[in-house]
């Protein structure tokens, strides 16, 4: 394939939403259409990147023709393409939901959502493609600004408060991360993750990890997530919980498995934090009175599973554990987006999201209840969902490497997820009138995402095989 | 052009600024204090980045990092200030609320 085409393909996922984000707020009409067209372009570019992928060498682009170390290098390997594509599918569905749901549910927001949503998408794609630690810092900051904008959209006090808390934690996190970058640069003379592989000083790795844990709401630095994610409008919460927090995990994967493959003590510590996240997040999810907060605490718990990959990805089990963790991130993204969109429908239909008062939903909005149930199946890790296949791989790796205690964490988290999912489903039955009857079309979109999370287990064979082959 | 040596003392001062500013970011309740502290913390890191013990020609990469970092830091601080102003208008006080359930 010619170099020019490759450059365009790599630039499109960043340039399209960025350009649309700048133009859309200036349009008088057709804002949704313009945003959706840009989104469709990103999905097409991500599919093409996957189609032309060469397993023996990742596609690269020196942005603006400048080569490293001064220039910026973008790189699309299988991990990047997987995250690009799953983000694209989720973001486009969320955007469609917003176009259909917001004009009726929250007309004041309908026009204001597009700029932060598109900037967020552009920053995410730039993050996936970045191959050096400093560009990752810049894209993390862009991502944070767009994410905080999404949280503020409702404009009331709780939303602004949650947004401010998020911004301050992210600010502290990124400063600590940047100090790690400085140490890495002084020690190795490079910022490139591939060039620094094997030579990352422990202090740099520790600082970057702590900064990323704050940004990614990884236990014990998760406190800011639930108020911020619950305060955003439904399409915003869906993107924040499904993909934005996982960007920190994405960088951790690259740091710990590709750049610093020999830090085994640190890996145990990460998994211990993951265990804390699974248990603490699930328990808090159980005690929440509001649906959006329950879903947000469930994100804290689900992020914990991902950290279990680090001690499990060793020796011959590297491939299965790596593929399992990436697939878990993808399936959880689909299911969590579905859940937050469904919670948006609940808010609209009832005027509140108090779990004790969900009666009538199963009768009057069955699609939304079904969406919550199907997404719950993925969170619990029941077959045939993507969550099941992914956890199965992690479980096998836990027994295969003789670390059965991590298997206990996986099983306990699944049980707790079952309890909090059934709490919501159970509350929806019974006869009661709704404040408003929600529209059908947006409900089917959330349902489609939940179904995709379920099907992610059925169609997993090919992607999992390729991920295992591409494992570092 | 032969560059000046940037001694270790600069990096150490940077670390002190960073730690002191992060401490203020966590303990000061006033949001303006927090924002300024966040900005200062980043400046501390910039001092660490410019550390050049051997006094060779100036390192363009380190300079690019600090320049980009300053731009990012200005953007984040400006956005934080705007958010603070709006929060202050809405709630009447420049502090974070501690109870979210209310």
Give a written overview of the molecule.
Chain A has 472 residues and is an all-alpha fold. Helices cover 74% and strands 2% of the residues of chain A. In chain A, strands 1-2 form a two-stranded antiparallel ribbon. In chain A, β1 (59-63) and β2 (72-76) form a beta hairpin. Chain A starts with a helix and ends with a helix. Chain B is mostly helical and 102 residues long. Chain B is built from three helices and no strands. In chain B, α1 (8-27) packs antiparallel against α2 (31-50) and α2 (31-50) packs antiparallel against α3. The termini of chain B are far apart. The mean pLDDT of chain B is 88. Classes of the chains: A mainly alpha (472), B mainly alpha (102). The A-B interface holds A 69-70, 134, 137-138, 141, 144-145, 148, 152, 155-158, 160-165, 167-168, 171-172, 175-176, 178-179, 181-183, 185-186, 191, 227, 289 and B 18, 22, 25-26, 31, 34-35, 38, 41-42, 44-45, 48-49, 51, 60-62, 64-65, 68-69, 72, 75-76, 79-80, 83-84, 86-87, 90-91, 96-97, 100-101.
And the CATH topology of chain B? Helix Hairpins
Mean pLDDT of chain B: 88
Q: How many domains is the backbone of chain B divided into?
A: 1
What is the count of β-strands of chain B? 0
* N- and C-termini, Cα separation of chain B: 63 Å
Rg of chain B is 18 Å
Number of helices of chain A: 21
Structural class of chain B: mainly alpha
Q: Pick out the low-confidence regions of chain B.
A: none
What letter string, H or E per element, gives the SSE order of chain B? HHH
- Largest sheet, strands/sense/barrel of chain B: none
- Helicity range of the residues of chain A? over 70%
Strand portion of chain B = under 5%
Main sheet overview of chain A? 2 strands, antiparallel
- What's the mean pLDDT score of chain A? 93
What's the gyration radius of chain A in Å? 21 Å
CATH architecture of chain B: Orthogonal Bundle
SSE arrangement of chain A, N to C: HHEEHHHHHHHHHHHHHHHHHHH
Multimeric status of the protein: heterodimer
Helix content of chain B: over 70%
Order of strands in the sheet with the most strands of chain A?
Answer: 1-2
